[in-house]
Design goal:
single chain; alpha+beta; Jelly Rolls; Arc Repressor Mutant, subunit A; 5-stranded mixed beta sheet; 11 helices; 10 strands; 18% strand; globular
Length: 295
């Protein structure tokens, strides 16, 4: 059972033998690297993790939901998401880890893979092209390529998997307006300190109206909603996965006081912070597995 009361921040720290921005590794090898098991508990990653389950069954916690893992399941944990492993000994799979910026040079997928609201789980047929594409990442690791060439191959393999996963759920991918891409990256860096759209526009050296047009063209909403939704997402994560008080969370997210934060939270989610915490917390941790078997 995952303890969801604390969040451990986990950075991208591949071993010295890995000199590329993308790494593919078997889950069993990853466990051995971690000394036999990956520490339990809620973790916030600053890198991408893509898991393709090849055998066995277990569960995994992603933000506020416990999801089932079975052969054919793909999970994509994005930077900033909170996740927690269930019984890692109950299943096996292929793991792809990628630095936060590994997809920045692939314009067709860079916006989608960095979207904090994009899908995280695909229950696929193990014969599905998208599942096979994840398994193919790292296929040429032993080809004796120069590091720069190998890095490019891995990034394109991972990007191909991303395109096929997006297609599997009917998601729209493609080149986004550069201004929108820059805006969303800036929001990821500043949302916990800045909610004023005019400040984002100034930092991006455009007018608020220009920013509004770019965001509307990309995702059909307003810059204000993009910022507010990201703040609300972080607030929900902190309420569920930490013991911080509502007042402490309000301060961490740059609200003047708890009352102001509570009004914001009600406007975005329809319920008070305390009520949300009480409702969601019992279901946030992965369930204990009994009688699991490979299949």
């Amino acid at each position: 059972m995952v303890d969801v009361r604390q969040i451990a921040d986990v950075g991208y720290a591949p071993p010295p033998s890995v000199s590329t921005s993308v790494e593919a590794i078997g889950l069993a090898d990853l466990r051995r690297r971690a000394g036999g098991s990956i520490p339990p508990g809620a973790q916030r990653l600053d890198f991408h993790v893509v898991l393709a389950v090849t055998s066995g069954r277990s569960t995994h916690m992603v933000d506020f939901e416990t999801v089932d893992l079975a052969p054919g399941t793909v999970l994509w944990i994005r930077p900033g998401q909170v996740h927690g492993w269930g019984d890692m000994d109950a299943f096996d799979g292929h793991v792809v880890m990628a630095a936060r910026d590994a997809f920045d040079g692939v314009r067709e997928v860079s916006a989608w893979v960095s979207d904090p609201f994009a899908p995280t789980r695909w229950p696929l047929d193990p014969a599905a092209p998208a599942f096979a594409a994840v398994l193919d990442v790292g296929r040429f690791d032993d080809a004796g390529l120069d590091t720069s060439v190998q890095d490019a191959v891995l990034r394109w393999q991972a990007s191909t998997a991303a395109l096929l996963l997006a297609a599997a759920v009917g998601a729209e991918v493609g080149v986004q307006p550069p201004l929108f891409t820059a805006f969303r990256r800036l929001v990821e860096r500043r949302f916990d300190a800045e909610r004023d759209v005019r400040a984002y526009a100034r930092e991006l050296a455009v007018t608020p109206r220009t920013l509004e047009r770019a965001v509307a063209a990309a995702v059909g909403t307003t810059p204000k909603k993009v910022v507010d939704q990201r703040v609300a997402l972080e607030a929900r994560r902190l309420l569920v996965h930490s013991d911080a008080s509502v007042a402490s969370i309000a301060a961490r997210l740059a609200f003047g006081d708890a009352a102001n934060f509570s009004r914001f939270f009600v406007r975005l989610t329809g319920e008070l912070p305390g009520a949300f915490r009480e409702r969601v917390r019992p279901a946030a941790g992965p369930r204990e597995e009994t009688g699991t078997s490979a299949g």
